[in-house]
Description:
2 copies of one chain form a homodimer.
Chain A: E1 6-11, E2 24-29, E3 39-47, H1 52-55, E4 76-83, E5 93-96, E6 103-106, E7 113-114, H2 131-143, E8 151-154, H3 160-171, E9 175-180, H4 183-191, E10 197-200, H5 207-214, E11 219-224, H6 228-236, E12 238-246, H7 267-270, E13 274-277, H8 287-299, E14 307-311, H9 316-323, E15 331-335
Parallel strand pairs in A: 8-9, 8-11, 9-10, 11-12, 12-13, 14-15
Antiparallel strand pairs in A: 1-2, 3-4, 3-6, 3-15, 4-5, 5-7
Amino acid sequence: MGTEKNRDIRLKSRPVGLPTRSDFELVETDIPSPGLGQVLVRNLFMSVDPYMRGRMMDRKSYVPPFQIGEVLQGGAVGKVVASNNGPFQVGDTVMSFSGWREWYVSDGSDMMQKVDATVAPIQSYLGALGMPGLTAYVGLTRIGELKDEERVFVSAASGAVGAIACQIAKNKGCRVVGSAGSDEKCAYLTDELHIDQAINYRTCGNLSLALSDVMQSGIDVYFDNVGGGHLTAALDNMRQFGRIVACGMIENYNATEPPKGPHNLMNIVGQSLTMRGFIVSNHYDLMERFRQDMSAWIAAGKMTWRETVYDGIEHAPDALIALFHGLNFGKMLVKLGEA
Amino acid sequence: MGTEKNRDIRLKSRPVGLPTRSDFELVETDIPSPGLGQVLVRNLFMSVDPYMRGRMMDRKSYVPPFQIGEVLQGGAVGKVVASNNGPFQVGDTVMSFSGWREWYVSDGSDMMQKVDATVAPIQSYLGALGMPGLTAYVGLTRIGELKDEERVFVSAASGAVGAIACQIAKNKGCRVVGSAGSDEKCAYLTDELHIDQAINYRTCGNLSLALSDVMQSGIDVYFDNVGGGHLTAALDNMRQFGRIVACGMIENYNATEPPKGPHNLMNIVGQSLTMRGFIVSNHYDLMERFRQDMSAWIAAGKMTWRETVYDGIEHAPDALIALFHGLNFGKMLVKLGEA
C-alpha cells in the first residue's frame, strides 16, 4: 500500500433542494490498519441511491440522518486485503454499508458479508442481486401481493429497482407498463426488458390519460418509485382492490416547499385500494428466497440490467446529483478501485 | 290508507359544492299496490349519510350515480303493511335501501331483510346495528387489523361511524383519541363514550401538534372519516407499521376544486404504513359476527350512541345539508312515519 492514501466523502452542509458539489467534501486520510479480529477492505464499487437524499436532512426517520462532517454511508462491494478475522480471507469479495470511502476496517459486526463473485459481476450485489433487486422483489411479492397475470404499472421503470420489478412481473406472466423519462429508455424497456408498453412521461402529455390508453382495464399493482404526478395518474387508473407499493417518491426528495399530495386520494376508498410503504431492511428474511429466484432467472436469461458507472470517488457527489436529473440508465454506481 | 299519498325525494339537479334545497324535489304519488309476491312497506325512518353526496355526481364509482329525476336511495327501516310474499308478514320490521320515500313495494330481491325489533329501537338498524356500525367494525377489525391495547385515533369521532369505532376500540382495551367539531361533542366523547382524549379540531390550532401532545408515542391505527387536514395530521404522527383505515373523506365531498392531498404522504414509505380503503358492502360476510358482538356490547352497557332526527320526508334534504355543516350529533335520521 506504500504511500497510498484513503479518500472518503463527507457531508459538508445539508442540501437545500437539489444537492450541489459544495454540500460534499473529499477528505484524504491514512489507510487504516486492521486490529485484532478486523479485516481491511478495499472498496471496488459503491452504490448511489435516491434514498440517500433523505438521510441528508436533519429529521426523525427510519434511519438516523447523516451528520455534518461525517463520512457518508451506503452500499459497497470490495475485496478483503488483510484479515485478522478467521471467516474472512484475503481475496474474499464482501458487501457492506461502508460506501463513500475507498478503504475501511471492519470486525464483521456491521452486516459486512461475503458474496459469491462467480454468479454475476461483483457490482451486481449493489443492484440486481442486492438491495435494489430485493426491494423490487419484496415490493411486488410481499407488499403488493402480486398474482400471476395481473396488470402492473412501474414508474422509473428503467431505474435500478424499476427494471428488476418490470422483469419479475413479466416472469410472473403479468401485463407490464413502465414509465421512463426518455425515448431511449422507453425503447430499452420494450425491446430489451420486453415489457408490454412504455410511456415517456416527459412527452406523453396527460399521464393519467396516457395510462388509461394503454391499460384500459386498469392497474392491479402500481409499483411507485416516483410519487407526485405519477401517483395521481395511477390513482386515476387503479382497479378495485388494487395495491400501490409505496417504494419511493423521488419527485419529492429535493422539494424546497411541501409537495402537493394527490387530489384524488379518495379513490383509495372508492376502489378499495391498499397503499403500503416499506423499507427493504425490514424484509431481509426474504433474502435467501430472493437470491435463489434471481440466480435462477439470471441463469435462464430472464433477467437483465444496465449500469451507469462514474469513475473515482471524487465523482460520487456528481453521480448522486445526476441521479436526480435522471441521467443514469439503470443502476448508478461509482467505481472506486480495480479488482 | 284511504286518500293518503306517497311522497318521495328526487334529484332535481347535480349539486355544485354544498347541496342546496333546490337540488331536490319533493314529489307526491299514489301509494303503490303490492302485486303477486310483493309486500307493501311503510318507511318509519330513513338514513342520511355522507357517502350519498358522492352518488349525486355523474362519475364512474363503486355504485352507479343517482340520476336526475329519479328517487334517491338509501337505508331505511319500515313496517310491512300488506304482504303477498310468504316470508314477510304484516307487522314485520324490515330494513332496505329504499329510503327517500314513504312507501314502497318489494318482492324481497332488493336486499330487504327482516330485523329483530326487540334488541334496540328500530332506527338502530340504520346506525349502531346497521351500516354505520358494521362500517366501524369492519374498518377497525378487518381493514385496520386492530390489536388489543393499540393506540387509536378516530376523526369525526362523535358521528355515526366514529362513535361506534371509538367504543369498539375502547372495548378492545385500546387508548383512543377522537376529534370533533365542538366542545360539547368533545365532552360527550370523554364523558359518555369514555375515550381517553378528545380534540376540538376547530379550536385546537395546529392539529398535528395537538395530536402529538396527546399521543406522544404515536398512532397505531387511524380511522379516517375526514381526509384533508386530519389525514395530514395523522400521517405526521403514525407509528412504524401503523394502519390508516380510509373510510371516508367528508372534507372533500363538496369541494368545487380538486382538493389538496397530504404533503407528507412520503411518511407511508418512511414509517412502513398501510393505508387501505374499503366499501362496507364488500364485507357483509362479517355481518353475523358483528351483530353478535354488538348485541353483546349493548346488553353489557358497553355501547351507546346519539341520534339527530329530522321529522318528515320534506326535511330530508335539510338533514343531508346539515350533515355537511356538522350540525348532527351522532347518527342523522329522518323520521318518515309513526309505528
